[in-house]
Amino acid sequence: MTENQIKFLELAREYELVKDRLDLVREELNSVLSKLELNSYFQDPTTKAVYKVVKPKGTFVSYKDVDYHRTALEGERQGSLSKKEAQEQNFTM
Fold it and tell me: What is the pTM assigned to this prediction?
């Protein structure tokens, strides 16, 4: 077996474990999101990111009934929710 094949197998196994965990987290997240009011805003006190609960327009792979947008975290160029919109909702950035 080549070095690349061995590395591939290690990464594939790791990917499957992470993917399974992400699928479970996404299910839990969807469950909680469905209980939140659409177009509601709230802020993470630790990161100061502002979240907005939204009805997504759809994605290529899957469709979600409810999703969220958030302001950029430290080190990110931009988030899916503008800081201007968050400030208009009286959040401090």
Answer: 0.58
